[in-house]
Write a structure and sequence with these properties.
Elements: H1 3-12, E1 19-20, H2 22-29, H3 33-45, E2 49-52, E3 56-59, H4 73-79, E4 83-86, E5 98-100, H5 105-111, E6 117-120, H6 124-132, E7 136-139, H7 147-156, E8 160-162, H8 167-186, H9 190-193, E9 201-202, H10 207-217, E10 222-225, E11 231-235, H11 237-240, E12 254-255, H12 266-276, E13 280-285, E14 288-294, H13 295-306, H14 315-320, E15 324-327, E16 331-337, H15 351-369, E17 374-384, E18 392-402, E19 406-415, E20 418-429
Parallel strand pairs: 5-6, 6-7, 7-8, 9-10
Antiparallel strand pairs: 1-3, 2-3, 4-8, 10-11, 11-12, 13-14, 15-16, 16-18, 17-20, 18-19, 19-20
Helix pairs in contact: 1-3, 2-3, 6-7, 12-13
Length: 432
């Protein structure tokens, strides 16, 4: 185990809420301050610690993915660009729900509960009520609270936050942040679908060892690791074909292979696999092997996510969902109106939005033709004419060339039967 790993394990064993300093870690574990600093930063990336302005670095409870629609008080502090006035030790806790305190004291009591965050102005009686009910406080308008309230918050380890923004502004900021989290939640990442069984070969293994591992596991490709479990290569059937059984795999493996992290989007991996012709990619964390992701994993994952109900919409969803889709002889036709969100600063349809609509139509056309996932290889647009608000638009996408790996789509946009844009799209298909 490396010093870095020892320090991270030490940090993970600390009580939640403990303050962490580079100097203290260095003294406790007899390491240099540089080594301690790097390990603390790695622990922060792994979400075991958090650095909070005017508070310092503290051990936090790692929020699991299933709770991604929740936020901690620390995250709220960052969202509202605020300061912490008291209750520093509770800053890592997860917010149960938000309550706006624009009501009488008696009414406030009906709505707050343990773990809530009450958004309110400088109202001493409401602050006291909130803390008595184990509820944290966010004070708006740049106001503060009494020393009595700060002392009470410190005793109960309930944070009191302060922001210069008004209530309407911060509720908008929090709502936007939660919406973005929901979108991220819907993005399928490596960790969701990867194969976590650690089948691998070591640097000192031979071709004979590869063949034995193939027979035992049923797999044909393996990561190759060093003594620290760091990935140094990949070995495949093509590499060992015709080689002597006692030949070291380090002499024939693919060195310095492409790797991905646990949070790499699956759609991005599909793009890499298509472009690089790869069927398996090692998954690493801090250079160490965590598992592998295969082309079959990616295809299953992409199909799974398409069948799931969406909790939040991206901008592309919002725009394309306003259009009707109709199948044609060679592809599809999208019909819709130019809406305010599609306009640029000059009041005409944004060229970027039109390109997005046309590429979406092309992708839908290919999906209708053959139920395979694809990535855009090239998109050539010949011209764009300006469109005004509420202009009706039709986007025709016709598949004109079908190959084993490539599709070509002719895309034309019309307004009042006049061509307003023309493009040609080429895509690569993702096959097993």
């Amino acid at each position: 185990m490396t010093k870095n790993e020892q320090i991270i394990d030490y940090i993970k064993d600390l009580p939640i809420g403990s303050k962490i300093s580079v100097r203290q870690i260095a003294q406790d574990l007899d390491v240099s301050e540089g080594t301690a600093y790097k390990a603390i930063k790695d622990a922060e990336r792994q979400e075991y610690v958090s650095t909070i302005p005017r508070v310092g670095t503290i051990r936090i409870e790692k929020v699991e993915k299933k709770r991604i629609d929740k936020v901690t008080f620390s995250e709220v502090l960052n969202i509202v660009e605020g300061q912490i006035l008291g209750g520093h030790e509770g800053i890592y806790k997860v917010v149960n729900k938000f309550v706006i305190g624009a009501m009488s004291v008696d009414e406030v009591k009906k709505y707050i509960s343990k773990g809530d965050l009450l958004i309110v102005g400088n109202r001493h009686d409401v602050h006291k009520l909130a803390l008595d009910n184990d509820c944290a406080i966010l004070i708006t308008g740049g106001l503060s609270c009494s020393e009595e309230i700060k002392k009470r918050a410190n005793e109960k380890k309930l944070p009191i936050l302060m922001t210069c923004y008004d209530t309407f502004t911060i509720t908008t900021m929090i709502d936007r942040a939660l919406h973005e989290r929901l979108i991220r939640k819907e993005i399928l990442i490596t960790e969701d679908i990867m194969t976590k069984e650690l089948y691998f070969l070591k640097a000192g293994d031979t071709v004979c060892d590869v063949k034995k591992q193939m027979k035992i596991t049923g797999h044909s490709r393996f990561p190759v690791v060093d003594h620290n479990l760091c990935v140094i290569g990949i070995i495949s059937p093509k590499d060992i074909s015709g080689e002597a059984l006692d030949k070291l795999i380090t002499n024939i493996m693919t060195k310095n292979p492409i790797t991905v992290s646990l949070d790499t989007p699956v759609a991005y991996i599909s793009h890499i696999m298509i472009w690089e012709g790869m069927k398996m990619i090692p998954v690493i964390e801090n250079k160490k092997l965590m598992g592998v992701i295969t082309r079959q994993d990616v295809i299953k994952g992409l199909k799974y996510i398409k069948n799931q109900p969406h909790m939040a919409e991206t901008f592309e969803h919002m725009v394309s969902n306003q259009c009707g889709v109709e199948e044609t002889k060679n592809g599809v036709k999208l019909t819709g109106d130019i809406t305010p969100m599609m306009l640029n600063e000059r009041g005409i349809a944004s060229a970027g939005i039109l390109v997005m609509l046309m590429s979406s139509a092309g992708s839908i056309a290919i999906k209708k033709q053959k139920n395979l996932d694809s990535v855009i290889d090239s998109f050539m647009i010949y011209f764009i004419k300006p469109l005004q608000l509420e202009n009706k638009i039709e986007v025709h996408a016709d598949v004109i060339n079908v190959g084993r790996k490539f599709y070509k789509v002719d895309i034309t946009a019309y307004h009042n039967e006049e061509i307003v844009s023309k493009a040609m799209m080429s895509v690569k298909l993702l096959r097993k």
